[in-house]
C-alpha cells in the first residue's frame, strides 16, 4: 500500500472517528485546513472549504459547544446528535476515500460510520458517568478535552497517518472491550428521568 493511500485512509478514518465526538468540529477543522491551504484534501472534501459550509458548521458548533457544557443537557444533546454524528462520519469517510476507488470508498464509508458510532457511544457513556459528579467543572473539562481531541486527532491523521492509524487500532481494541459498559452508562440519565416521572 502506497504512502498516499495510507494518508487518504488516515484522513477518512480520522474524519469518521472525529465525527463521533463532534461532527461540526470535524467539518470546521477539515474545511479550515483546506481553505487556508495547509493541506490539499481529497477532491470530494474540497466543498468543506466553502464559506457557506464553514459558516453553518461554525454556528452549529457554537450551539453544540454551549449545550455540551451543561450537565444532563449534554446527555440529551448527545442522544439527539446520534442522527448527525454517525451519518456525518460515514459521509466524510466516503468523501475522503472516493478518489481511490468506488469499492474502497464504500468500505471507508462503512468503517467511518462504525467508528463514529463507537466514538459517539464512548463519549455519551463517559459523559453520563461524569454527570453523576455534583460539580460542573469536570463536565466542562471533558467537553473541552473532546474538542481539543478532534483538532489534535485530525492534525495527527493529516501529518502522521501511520502513527494515527496505529493509535486508532488501539482505540478500537479498547472500545470493543469497554462498549457494553459504556452503553449501560449512556442510558443512566434516561433511566433516572423515567424513575422520577413514575414517582407519585
What features would you highlight for this structure?
7 helices; mainly alpha; 200 residues; globular
Question: How would you describe this protein?
Answer:
- With 200 residues, the chain is mainly α.
- It has seven helices and no strands.
- The protein starts with a helix and ends with a helix.
- 82% of the residues lie in helices and 0% in strands.
- It has helices spanning 3-35, 51-67, 73-80, 82-97, 102-130, 137-159, 161-198.
- Helix 6 runs antiparallel to helix 7.
- The protein has one domain.
- The longest helix is centred in the C-terminal third of the chain and has 38 residues, at 161-198.
By oligomeric state, this entry counts as single chain
Q: If helices are DSSP runs of H or I spanning 4 or more residues, what is the number of helices?
A: 7
Strand content: under 5%
Mean pLDDT: 86
**How many strands?**
0
H/E topology pattern? HHHHHHH
